Amino acid sequence: MSIEFLLLYLITFVLFLDTHGLSPLIAPYARSLGASVGLVGWVVGAFSLANLLGNLSGGMWADRVGRKTPLIVGLLTVGVALLAYPTLQSPQALLAVRALHGMGSALVAPACLAYLGDASSPVARGRTMALYGVAYGMSGLIGPPLSGLIRDQFGYPAIFLGLATLMFLAVLAALGWLRGGRLSQKDPGSPGAWRALLRRRLSVSFVAAFCWMFALGTLLVFLPLRGEALGFSAAQVGMLFGSFALAASLLQASPLGRLSDRWGRLPMIMVGLALIAIALLILSPLTVWGPMMGAMFLYGLGFGVLFPAKSALIADETTPLTRGKASGGFSAMFSIGMIAGTGMAGAMERWHQTVGLHPFQITALVVLGGLLWAAVVSLTDRRKRSA
Predict the structure, then answer these.
(1) Comparing C-alpha atoms, which of 300, 309, 314 is closest to residue 263?
(2) For the chain, N or C: smaller number of CB within 10 Å?
(3) Same domain for 202 and 130?
(4) Separation of alpha carbons 8 and 371, rounded Å
(5) For residue range 120-150, what is the model confidence (pLDDT) as tens digits?
(6) Phi and psi for 288 in degrees, rounded to 5?
(7) Which of 204, 194, 181, 184 shows the shortest CA–CA distance to 314?
(8) Distances, alpha carbon 263 to alpha carbons 55, 159, 258, in Å
């Protein structure tokens, strides 16, 4: 593995360590500054909204100037936002800094993904993206418990300053070891470059990203509530999420992480979506912690199969001229899926009460819709090849 690949994985880990580590702490931190419940919701949502806008603009910027500049600017922005958190005196200021934080984070993710796509060979992209998924998964496994421990022992400022230090170290490393100049003399904003993003195969990756984050958003709302109603401790609920992160990381780190390099991207996307849907259907009636751990482990295996395939498909279906925009759109679908999954929580709860359809079952139907679209595109491709 080259130093550039290793560094990109470490940057990915640090970036999402920040995202996952702060996710359970921002709401109580906003309350400590005097925010109302309504304003807490805006503070939490500001990151996702800014992240969505930043993903799209960051992807276009990465195609225009290369991957390195947006990546470094994004890391610097995140570092500055983290330094600002301990100095804030009002929830309104926190809202503004949280939006800045989301925008900075959104510049980094598409640049990393496009950089990996540029540097990997087509026959090994599944493995490359599997290791990217490992970095993402391990940050989710380590971030929340570590940040909670630091807050309990040293307070909020220690978390913010520690993460800021990691961001600035990442900037120094990127300046020293990452290459990244202008990719092409051709205008990356030309109509032809944009039309290239409308391919059906590429849309499968976008749809899969939406389905995955819609499911995760639903779980983030309803799984803790289910655990509380069943009398689980906070640690037990955390271990449910840890089970999925562990399963995903183990699968992607193993030789199975390159399945899509051997069997194709679309078949593995379909397998991953099917496993996620099955796990959600199994999870919906369960009330015992042990079997729920098993269902979440299966969910993690589905993610472990899905993530490398859908990420590698982005690189397969693009060129350096369009890969940044496609990666930005891919990352934006993460934000859209999360916003939709959490935003529909109230409606799903009403449907549960009126027609008896559990939120996890509703989410499984959404995921199966993504599976159906992947199957349609796969069948169309086969017919074209046989014609």
Answers:
(1) 309
(2) C
(3) no
(4) 30
(5) 888 888 989 999 999 988 898 888 888 888 8
(6) -110, 135
(7) 204
(8) 30, 43, 9
Burial pattern 52-83, b for ≥16 Cβ within 10 A else e, equals bebbbbbbbbbbbbbbbbbbbbbbbbbbbbbb
**Using CB atoms within 10 A of its CB, is residue 138 exposed (0-12), middle (13-18) or buried (19+)?**
buried
pLDDT of residue 194: 54
**Domain enclosing residue 367, as ranges:** 198-317+344-387
Residue 58 sits in the same domain as residue 113: yes
CA dihedral 179, 205, 282, 250 (to 10 degrees): -20
Tokens of 190: 């030309």
- Total number of domains constituting the chain: 2
Which residue is it, tokens 């290239």? 196
In the Cβ-directed half-sphere of 175, how many Cα atoms lie within 13 Å?
A: 11
Side chain identity at 299, as an amino acid letter? Answer: Y
What is the rounded average pLDDT of the residues 225-251?
Answer: 85
Output the pTM of the full model: 0.82
Q: What is the pLDDT of residue 193?
A: 52
Q: What is the pLDDT of residue 196?
A: 56
Whether 246 is covered by a domain: the verdict is: yes
pLDDT band at 185 (very low <50, low <70, confident <90, very high): very low
